[in-house]
Amino acid sequence: MLTTHVNRRRFLSAAAAIVGAGALGACSAAQGADGRILQFWHLLSGGDGVTMAGLIDQVNAAHAGFDAKPTVLAWGAPYYTKLAMAGAGGRAPEVAIMHASRVPGYVPGGLLDPWDKELLASHGVGEEQYSQPVWDKSHVGGELYSVALDAHPFIMLYNKELCAEAGVLDADGRLKATGTPEEFLALGRELSAVSEGHGMSFGYLGSGSQMWRLFYTLYCQQGVAMELPQGGEAQIDEDAAVTALEFMQQLLDGEVAAAQNDEDNAIAEFATGRSAILFTGVWELPTMQKEGIDVGAAAIPTLYSQPAVYADSHSFVLPRQMNADPELRKMTYTFVADLLSRSTEWAAAGHIPAYLPVIESDAYAKLEPQSDYSDAANHLVYDPPAWFTGSGSNFQSDFGQTVQSVLMTGSDPRPAVRAFKKQLDAILAKPNPTDPEGEWSA
């Protein structure tokens, strides 16, 4: 059982430690034209924001008792700053979106309330409706602290026209499977022969998140994990880390993929038809479809001993309120459950719906190429839990700063792996600032 001692001073110190100073959001229960106002904060913009707005409208229309009112804040540190400070001040919204990887950093400071599993189950939302990796990631200290809307893994988009020309599509028009690093590199060379640019596009310069997503996929495919115990030493399998980085070096040979490329140029190379495969997040799928590319999509193949796909999830959380309104809290459960049931539309943006009844529906099965990589939901790996990891944190950028020169120069990865471990050990040796009493561990 997770134990926290909550008071205003602790709220404020925990929030400041996680994200630094920021604006304090203000929310209050109010009466709307059709029902009570349910405040909902999220960080979704662009096409995702438009899709979410449509889903909110649908849910509101179906329930006369409440009107969910969205507040959209800037992605990354600005969002997490405001959310933490709102919780610290006891003026948080009824519900908010967080990346699942960030939740462990907010729990020890008492910034989130756990979900009532029985109440959720009465709305048809529970363990049976989720893949095991997503459900497990939703827990901290044995309590359910997030309810996932989706999983957005790091995948491959592929140009079907170029792949057909290279003869690497199967009878169903999908990319042929590869099962070893050597087979995958051979595939890249076959594709380079029919591409004006490179066989594959991977942008990594200046982007720690890009480097980390591919690295951690390959690392975990070797049947190992990375653990970051507070007050201890980082548990990193050095040999597996070196193997992953050496494969990435082979990928960046100037033929399979550009030796030095940033994310924007990699996307442009694929979008203009000059490469056959793009390593990217699922969120780029709609962009390529709009470009008119006959695009397919697949999870990064299992090249080592077991399947693993790096991902994160947009998840619903209950920010801590000093005096939560019981009726609004019940309405929040209704809102979230109904929105989950409508998340087929969310899948159109490339995300894998986390709610299994949607994945198993006929409507989702007809959604291509999204349904082609839905099985990745059974093999997801998230950032190792710690208060300093997760999307929008410095953890991934620190990793990138450590290994970028290794990828650029082809030098021995082992010193970089050891340097990264040393950085992590230094952070872990310090008291967890989100838990002043030192009682919590993931």
UniProtKB/TrEMBL annotation:
Domain of life: Bacteria
Record has Signal as a keyword: yes
TM annotation in the entry: none
Signal peptide, first to last residue: 1-32
SUPFAM superfamilies tied to this protein: Periplasmic binding protein-like II
Keyword field contains Nucleus: no
UniProt name for this protein: Carbohydrate-binding protein
Keywords: Signal
